Amino acid sequence: MIGGLFIYNHKGEVLISRVYRDDIGWALISSTGGRSRRNAVDAFRVNVIHARQQVRSPVTNIARTSFFHVKRSNIWLAAVTKQNVNAAMVFEFLYKMCDVMTAYFGKISEENIKNNFVLIYELLDEILDFGYPQNSETGALKTFITQQGIKSQTKEEQSQITSQVTGQIGWRREGIKYRRNELFLDVLESVNLLMSPQGQVLSAHVSGRVVMKSYLSGMPECKFGMNDKIVIDKQGKGGTTDDSGKSGKQSIAIDDCTFHQCVRLSKFDSERSISFIPPDGEYELMRYRTTKDIILPFRVIPLVREVGRTKLEVKVVIKSNFKPSLLAQKIEVRIPTPLNTSGVQVICMKGKAKYKASENAIVWKIKRMAGMKESQISAEIELLPTNDKKKWARPPISMNFEVPFAPSGLKVRYLKVFEPKLNYSDHDVIKWVRYIGRSGIYETRC
Amino acid sequence: MPAVSKGDGMRGLAVFISDIRNCKSKEAEIKRINKELANIRSKFKGDKALDGYSKKKYVCKLLFIFLLGHDIDFGHMEAVNLLSSNKYTEKQIGYLFISVLVNSNSELIRLINNAIKNDLSSRNPTFMCLALHCIANVGSREMAEAFAGEIPRILVAGDTMDSVKQSAALCLLRLYKTSPDLVLMGEWTSRVVHLLNDQHMGVVTAAISLITCLSQKNPDEFKTCVSLAVSRLSRIVSSASTDLQDYTYYFVPAPWLSCKLLRLLQCYPPPEDGAVKGRLVECLETILNKAQEPPKSKKVQHSNAKNAILFEAISLIIHYDSEPNLLVRACNQLGQFLQHRETNLRYLALESMCTLASSEFSHEAVKTHIETVINALKTERDVSVRQRAADLLYAMCDRSNAKQIVAEMLSYLETADYSIREEMVLKVAILAEKYAVDYSWYVDTILNLIRIAGDYVSEEVWYRVIQIVINRDDVQGYAAKTVFEALQAPACHENMVKVGGYILGEFGNLIAGDPRSSPLVQFNLLHSKFHLCSVPTRALLLSAYIKFINLFPETKSTIQEVLRSDSQIRNSDVELQQRAVEYLKLSSIASTDVLATVLEEMPPFPERESSILAKLKKKKGPGAVSVNELEEGKREGGELNGGGERGGDSSTSAVGSTPSPSADLLGLRAGPPVTAAAPSAGSLLVDVFSEAGVNDDGFLRFVCKNNGVLFENQLLQIGIKSEYRQNLGRMYLFYGNKTSVQFVTFTTTLNVQAKPVEPLIEGGAQVQQVINIECLTDFSDAPLLNIKFRYGGALQNLTLKLPVTINKFFQPTEMASHDFFQRWKQLSLPQQEAQKIFKANHAMDTEVLKAKLLGLGMALLENVDPNPENFVCAGVIQTKAQQVGSLLRLEPNAQAQMYRLTVRSSKDTVSKRLCELLAEQF
Q1: ipTM, 2 dp
Q2: Residue B620, Cβ density class (10 Å: 0-12 exposed, 13-18 middle, ≥19 buried)
Q3: Under DSSP, is residue A431 helix (H, G, I), strand (E, B) or coil?
Q4: What does the pLDDT look like over B148-189, one tens digit per residue?
Q5: Burial class (CB in 10 A: 0-12, 13-18, 19+), A91
Q6: For the whole model, what pTM was predicted?
Q7: CB A368 within 8 Å of CB A359
Q8: Candidate from B25, B74, B105 with C-beta closest to A10
Q9: Where is the Clathrin adaptor alpha/beta/gamma-adaptin appendage Ig-like subdomain domain (chain B) (predicted)?
Q10: Which of A176, A212, B163, B473 is the most exposed place for a label (fewest CB within 10 A)?
């Protein structure tokens, strides 16, 4: 089990240190072979944060102690253990820890951590017990770990907290009431692509999340439906309506998915229906991944020509490939430049382009772009002759954007709410659905 | 360096550096650097002309970026341009960039070399220095090729400034170290040596580093530096602390120079010139005296500088190893340091004492500090100092204090650091064996050792115990008793079980009389440990069990039961299973007689060098070599060089390089250079005598042969190869060290003139000595050869008769039967004839007899004697004074196995001697 948890800033200074088990503490002998007894905190700083070569593995083993780390901007979270633990569990916990902290005080930064360290220790006491992860559901935690200071609680409230924390549905408390029953559903997808210069797709996948925000009274039972191929095919076989037959063509094949703990997995296994009692507030209902029939929102066509040893001509065309009525936003194309660039001239039809020396790239930004359009940039790069014989590696051109549809083709078919005890029905709930497709690693070789 | 004026401040650089320092993260730093690089690239773009200042600034920035660990692949051209600037700061930055960044890039190197050449030939000393520093910093082969010829000229030129001379000397040193073949000193040698007389102390200091390095390679060429160095040293040592002004460091005059001078002197043997030597001894005494004076300052630098000189002087004294007075004084001085509160001093003192302990003059003086050293071993905080203390104890150990030292080391072992335990164990084992007066003490010590530090006792140690116990009848009973008692401890180490198993198996009967250690008790005791042991130990125990069956038949059934059990006879380990099966069968089938023959007591082991000594040497890695071995390494180089010179002809050098000298000497691969008197008989002769085997006095064997092994024991083998012509002879003596330890202070003395022999023989190596012999007149006594050397700590002394006999100077004379008998009759005076009748020692083989007579050096005359069984020989002995003709007649009697030998010669003593010599041969 987890022996301790440390949070470091970028300099390797410890911001938070919480030790759950003594075995990790002072028994470490530094890997440099010295005889000095050095503590685990230092070992991680020396061997990972300040390592000569950047450490890429998220798990580091130093002197028979394992360090699992995740990095959020400049902050390192490291879980330390001497035992042979389930690494996936530790990382799940670390990610959850990040989510919880974000839910409590926003962005994870050195400043925020310093300002909230009492809160963080409180949270750590609650979500890890002797190194075993406990309930880390933000909604539940927020009921008894607050930032408002100590609130005197009545006996009733205390017993409620106890029953809720120890009960079957740990993620939702009873007796929630809203005047307006509202429900927000976001389908967030990120599309990843690697394409050859000739336009051949070398690899592509979409990883998506269904994020919900629910403000519902009582203990409602929800049912979520989407155009999952298996479900649609099953219904198609039943041959009930034309509708299902029509939407069958638009069904998508989900490669794998994971659910929030509130989803009844037994029902998903037997009927492939997603039914659940939602937590209150914001949560991630499911995560999924698809690799087939992905709609690629943009196509990048590069053209690079070397003119002698000291000049390079680059022309890049981007084409948007979705319904003309939709608008893509925040488009950014990043064209890498050789390391011996000594000057750049850029001409572009649309948006703004600039050579960023500090990043060794030309960055072309377009605020908005409608579907089925195309735009072009051309640049002349002057090079300084060097005595280095190394050839330029030609890194791929990468792209960032945001589009208002799901590149995987996922559609929400329904989201039904039943609350038998209270007198509101499915129709009284106001439901909002939104699709956002973002670029993940979206690259084209040149 | 000239002060940086305001205009040279390079504000841009300062801003850039402070930007970098303020970067919050690595990513930010990389961004800032990328930006700066892009900026510099755009500035360096061909079409713009940059002024010197900005060029310098950008090159500086590039250098800084490079030093942060980023790749720089441009800007070299600009840096080279800076070299041709006339401004000091610009030139300096240019050189700095080049010495840090330029690798052997052919195109640029030419430009750079050109710029350096210009600066070297300029009259500006600062520029010359910059150029020299650049050459030294780059120090590549290309640089050496280009400038190795130029720099010595600058170094010795009369008009060169002192500062340039300094730089030139150090630059040359660097080039010499990288490519010694390119730096040819030849013509400059004497002038470089004379730099030791330079007025400027800085030049002397720089030059001496160069000379030390050069003289290590060619000591002979730089021999003259010894006297100069001595006089320089005496001037420094005798100067008052204020005389040298700039070169006085915390009241110590020129400490660095003194140290270097002393180190240079360590490259040479003590000066032969009495005056020089006297002066040097005086210097060393002064240094030792100064150490006694109260410190002039309380600053640590003062004492450091003073002690540095002192330690260097002491190592010189140790190196000379010829001044008992100085050695003892040095030892006393070190003794004072042993209790100094400065840890480093204690360490150094212990280390130097280790070498002092091996010198015969100071060994006793070192021994007086035994209490302090033991105390250091116990109380010292620093592990490295404790290690040195242990080394010193080992070095100072001899018969008188062995018991005390071994006891102390044993008691220390219980608390010793893990890192040095194994070494300590080996040392204790060696000392206990080497200085054991009674072997029961030895057995006690080793068993104790196994008890205390069983894990660190290597195989060799317990093998050795068993070897010794088996070879010494007097301790066997005691050993068995002690082992038996030791095994009774509830938890004993596996090594103890091994020793116990072996010894009880061999000598258990010696203690079986006591009812407390009856055979069955012994067996049960051993078997109780069986299950806790590893496979090899179990195998050993099984062998012990079968020996028990032989020793004590009453245990047979019990042991057979054990062998028959499934855990033995069906053991998954093949070795154990096989032993169990075989032993079981052996015990049940074989009669007691057979069993007794098979399991007879182990014969004594042949004496050989203790394997643990070899182990200890191996153990001493590069980190832990004592000074002793360091010196060994240092001399090794010289030895190799010398060896090449001495091995004049190919045959001898071939002998020198083969690992087993005896085989080669006997085989004589290169064809033996035999005397004219015994043509082609050499190899046959050798065969004859190798059958005879080695007898104690090798002398007689050489009457009839010239090559072979004169002497051999377990340490040393002396081989001989000799050739004679007329009254002259030359003898090559090969001293072969059969051990893996070096012999030190190896000397031979001879009442015949001989070249001195190398004073040191490496383990396993061979040293050659040449003796030229001239026969002045006839003689009967052979010259005596006295050999002295140190093996380990003990002085070995050996006196041998050199096999030079009168017959070696025979010139064979061919003559007909008629002539022979005429001469025979001429030598008819009674005193001219010597006759002996003796019994044959060897088989009467005609061919062998012929070979022997040929080996004698006379001509064997056929068809002279009417009786074909008889042999007649004739020859002339060549001495400087006269020639002595000799005739010989040998009449074998096959029935009686007797010979009659008659020798007639013109001189009566010769006849007698020849008769004596030959009588022993047949």
Answers
A1: 0.71
A2: middle
A3: strand
A4: 888 888 888 878 888 899 999 999 999 988 888 888 777 788
A5: middle
A6: 0.58
A7: no
A8: B25
A9: 700-803
A10: B473
